[in-house]
Amino acid sequence: MDDLLQEFLTETNESIAEVDLELVNLEKNPDNPELIDNIFRLVHTIKGTCGFLGLPRLESVAHAGENVLGKFRDKELVVTPEAVTLILQAIDRIKEILEHLEANEAEPEGDDSDLIARLNAMAAGESAPAASAPDTAEAAPAEEAEAAAVQETAADNAAENEDAASGAQEAGAEESGEEKKFLQAGDFDPQLGRKLRPGEVSMDELERAFQEAEGPEIQETKPAPAAKAAKAEESPAAKKDVHKAASSIRVNVHLLEHLMTMVSELVLTRNQLLQMVRGMEDSEFTVPLQRLSHVTTELQEGVMKTRMQPIGNAWAKLPRIVRDLSMELNKKIDLQMLGADTELDRQVLELIKDPLTHMVRNSADHGMETPEERLAAGKKETGKIVLNAYHEGGHIIIEIADDGRGINIERVKQKALDNGLVTPGELEGMSDQQIQKFIFMPGFSTAEAVTSVSGRGVGMDVVRTNIEKIGGTIDLRSEEGKGSTFIIKIPLTLAIVSALIVESAGERFAVPQISVVELVRTSDRASDHKIETINNTPVLRLRERLLPLVHLHEVLELEKDPESDSSEDYIIVTQVGNYSFGIVVDRVFDTEEIVVKPVAPILNNIGIYSGNTILGDGSVVMILDPNGIAASTGEVTLSDSEEDADAVRGASSEDTTALLVFRAGAVEPKAVPLSLVARLEEIDVAQFERANNQIVVQYRGHLMPLVTVDPSYQIKEEGRQPILVFSDEERTMGLIVDEIVDIVEDKLDIELRSSGTQAILGTAVIGEHATEVIDVAYYLAQAFPDWFNSQTPAVQPTDETAPKVLLVDDSPFFRNMLTPLLQLAGYEVTTADDAADALQLREGGARFDLIISDIEMPGMNGFEFAEAVKADGRWQSTPIVALSSHATPQDFDRGRQAGFTDYVAKFDREELLATLNQTLRMGGGAA
Amino acid sequence: MSVLGMDGATSDFVTVTISGQLFGIPVLMVQDVLGPQAITRIPKAPPEVAGALNLRGRIVTAIDVRRRLNLPPQEDGSGMSVVVEYRDEPYSLMIDSVGEVLSLSAERFERSPATLDPRWREISNGIYRLDDKLLVVLDVERLLDFAGGGSLAA
Question: CATH 2.40.50.180: does it fit domain B10-144?
Answer without folding.
Answer: yes
